[in-house]
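Quick one:
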Amino acid sequence: MRLRFLRDAEAELIESAGYYDANTSGLGAEFLDEVERTLRIVAKYPGIGGSVIGEYRRVLTTRFPYALIYRATADEIVVVAVAHTSRSPGYWRATEPDRTPET
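Output:
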């Protein structure tokens, strides 16, 4: 199954890894490893995450306080956000390019 990050999600991933690494050398790499491990599980079991809105799902990382927001199709997992769990829920909606605006 193909994995794709939206630009904003990739930026969040890089920024978060940089933050962890700036505080403790090597912790950024451990964060990236945890995200990769979580994504391997999602790729194997795309329906594992809890439903957020419509086709969007949310799965938590184990070691770090982050949620991966994604949508799955038959051949692709699209990561829409790499969200710290204390961040406002739903902030990522504006980053999904093919999402219809809410009324």
